[in-house]
Amino acid sequence: MSFSTEPDASSRYPTFQDALARRILAHPGIGDHQSDSQEDADALDDFASYLARELWSFLPPVLREAPYEDRASVPDVEDLSLENIPTSFTDSLISYGLVEDEESAVVFLRRVLRDYVADACAPPPVWSKTRTKECEICEREVPLTYHHLIPREVHDKVRKKKWHPESMLNSVAWLCR
């Protein structure tokens, strides 16, 4: 099994990092204290980024890719063997008081992975549910219409050449005239 060492910008890495950051914020004592300090927010972002980078290369490729189109190929998080997680991840969680021991670090990681898989494998939104009040280009509040980002006339060609996943075909932008 080959593992990449660096997160790929086009991958699901940002989704994983967000799931990890949300779990950190949900921890009692971290998300409870309200701080408007940009310094605190930057430190939390750096910490979540560090942990995500440490873990990403240890995740199986099928989990790192987690496609909506083939959700059945993604293993159940409870069935994953997590003995090979880096000690730096576990030690960091213990040092910051997020977990008490290695066992609770694995439980924490399983929660992160459940959130990540749910987000990564979620179906794309129905175009009508993406409606905004402002034009997505000029940001004015005027009457809007939706426009397909991949023109409907080329959907057959896109499918044939596999330029985009099927789920991307009905992506729209809400624009003013």
Q: State the share of residues found in helices, binned by percent.
A: 40-55%
| Helix-and-strand structural type | mainly alpha
For the residues shown, what is the average pLDDT?
81
- The figure for the number of domains is 2
Query: Main beta sheet: strand number and arrangement?
Result: 2 strands, antiparallel
User: How many H/I helical runs?
Assistant: 6
Tell me the Rg in angstroms. 20 Å
Strands, total number = 2
* First-to-last CA distance: 51 Å
Shape: flat
Order of helices and strands: HHHHHEHE
Strand order of the largest sheet: 1-2
Beta-strand content bin: under 5%
- Could you list the spans in which at least 5 consecutive residues all have pLDDT below 50? 1-5
Tell me what the structure shows.
The protein is mainly alpha-helical. The protein folds into 2 domains: 13-120, no CATH class; 127-175, no CATH class. Helices cover 41% and strands 5% of the residues. The protein is built from 6 helices and 2 strands. It has helices spanning 13-26, 38-56, 61-65, 87-95, 102-120, 155-161; strands spanning 145-148, 172-175. It has a two-stranded antiparallel sheet. It is flat, with a radius of gyration of 20 Å. The N and C termini lie far apart (51 Å).
